[in-house]
TrEMBL record:
<dbReference type="GO" id="GO:0003677">
    <property type="term" value="F:DNA binding"/>
</dbReference>
<feature type="domain" description="HTH arsR-type">
    <location>
        <begin position="1"/>
        <end position="99"/>
    </location>
</feature>
<keyword id="KW-0238">DNA-binding</keyword>
<dbReference type="InterPro" id="IPR036390">
    <property type="entry name" value="WH_DNA-bd_sf"/>
</dbReference>
<dbReference type="InterPro" id="IPR036388">
    <property type="entry name" value="WH-like_DNA-bd_sf"/>
</dbReference>
<protein>
    <submittedName>
        <fullName>DNA-binding transcriptional regulator, ArsR family</fullName>
    </submittedName>
</protein>
<keyword id="KW-0804">Transcription</keyword>
<dbReference type="Pfam" id="PF12840">
    <property type="entry name" value="HTH_20"/>
</dbReference>
<dbReference type="InterPro" id="IPR011991">
    <property type="entry name" value="ArsR-like_HTH"/>
</dbReference>
<keyword id="KW-0805">Transcription regulation</keyword>
<dbReference type="GO" id="GO:0003700">
    <property type="term" value="F:DNA-binding transcription factor activity"/>
</dbReference>
<dbReference type="InterPro" id="IPR051081">
    <property type="entry name" value="HTH_MetalResp_TranReg"/>
</dbReference>
<dbReference type="InterPro" id="IPR001845">
    <property type="entry name" value="HTH_ArsR_DNA-bd_dom"/>
</dbReference>
């Protein structure tokens, strides 16, 4: 994974606004390279739809075509690994801030649905869920430093699918820190 963060452009934020595109990215991250046909089958879509969304993801740098795997008209795609981040709010126009907010809301709702689905059907996988709730006082600079340290921990303990040890599963990590809106 690239060590320098890649800031989302407005086009990238628009690309991520589609839940299906985010599902395509998760599928590729979990299962590896795929064609529009295999993605369509996995997601209950038609190949025209997945082809269109793959092109949008390619145009914004989220996926790349694997030309060495192509056979005839068959096109293979994989994710482009990178440390992707949202730009600072003050760097965005009002319209881009609105887009970033809607994207954040959509992602949060999606995360909560996935967590709820896991929590309701965890059976033997229950011990895979770990979590913590905490509250502490920090300055904005300390919060930013904490975030960078968190990302270092993710890189230290995590692996992409190509380097994952035997028995590893995709684990969804969601870290968020924000001031208590009820505080001063």
């Amino acid at each position: 994974m690239a060590t320098e963060p890649v800031m989302h452009t407005p086009a990238a934020m628009k690309a991520l606004a589609s839940p299906l595109r985010r599902e395509i990215l998760r599928h590729l991250a979990n299962h590896g390279p795929a064609t529009s046909t295999t993605l369509a089958k996995a997601m209950g879509q038609n190949t025209g739809t997945t082809s269109y969304h793959l092109r949008m993801l390619s145009d914004t740098g989220f996926v790349t075509e694997l030309h060495d795997r192509a056979k005839g008209r068959e096109r293979w795609w994989d994710i482009v690994k990178a440390d992707r981040r949202m730009p600072a709010r003050e760097e965005l126009t009002d319209a881009e801030q609105d887009l970033a907010e809607r994207l954040g809301d959509s992602r949060l709702a999606e995360d909560l649905r996935m967590l709820s689905a896991f929590a309701h059907d965890r059976n033997e996988d229950g011990d895979w869920q770990q979590g913590s709730r905490a509250g502490t006082f920090m300055t904005k600079a300390q919060l930013m430093e904490f975030h960078e340290e968190y990302l270092k921990l993710v890189r230290r303990f995590g692996a992409d699918r190509d380097h994952a040890p035997e028995g590893a599963r995709m684990v969804l990590l969601r870290w968020i820190g924000f001031p208590d809106p009820r505080g001063s």
